[in-house]
Structure formats: C-alpha cells, structure tokens
Write a structure and sequence with these properties.
By secondary structure, the protein is α+β, with helices and mostly antiparallel strands. Helices cover 33% and strands 25% of the residues. The mean pLDDT is 87.
C-alpha cells in the first residue's frame, strides 16, 4: 500500500483510534445536528486542528495538498495553524455557502 495515496491515508488508523474518514463523519454529523437545531443563529464550535481539517475536507475539494471551497483556497501545504485558528462556516438552511479563515492578532 502506498502511504501517499489519499484513499489509504483516509482509511488508516492506529490501533483502536479513528481514521480520517471516521473523524470527518463524526465531526460532520455533530455539526449538522447543531446547524439543524440552531438555524439562523450564530454558533461557536471548538475542536482540534486535525479534526477541523478533516471536517473542512468533507465540504471542500482536496487535491494537490490544497483544500478549496467554491474556487476559494482555504488552506494549502504552506498553511500554518495559529492557536486558536478561526474558521467561519456560513450555512443557508443545511447548505454550506461559505468558508472563511478569520485572521486575528493578539
């Protein structure tokens, strides 16, 4: 098996841990439950960087180490996580219409 193949890494897991696919599905299901329950509300959800990345990949296109949503680059191989990193996801009903990385300074 080729470790660089996206399908392999998406399914790979260590021991009893979660694979990328399992994390992405868990994050997506939890997010959509909240979005459905609190439509038209502003919501803050906090998680770990890796889990957020996998969630974004559920909505966006991942190719050549780039995550792109609606032709807008969300992150690429040069992306450096800051703590905290803030992503604004805008929904219209149950459809994601925009992803924005909000930069801030301390």
């Amino acid at each position: 098996t080729n470790d660089n193949h996206p399908e392999y890494s998406f399914k790979y897991k260590i021991g009893n841990g979660e694979s990328q696919k399992e994390v992405a599905n868990r994050m997506y299901n939890a997010l959509m439950d909240v979005v459905n329950k609190y439509q038209d509300k502003k919501i803050v959800i906090v998680s770990h960087a890796t889990a957020i990345t996998f969630l974004l990949m559920k909505f966006a296109t991942y190719q050549d180490q780039k995550i792109v949503f609606n032709n807008k680059l969300i992150m690429d191989e040069t992306f450096k996580w800051n703590a905290p990193e803030i992503f604004k996801l805008e929904f219209k009903k149950n459809n994601l219409i925009n992803i924005e990385n909000i930069k801030w300074e301390m």
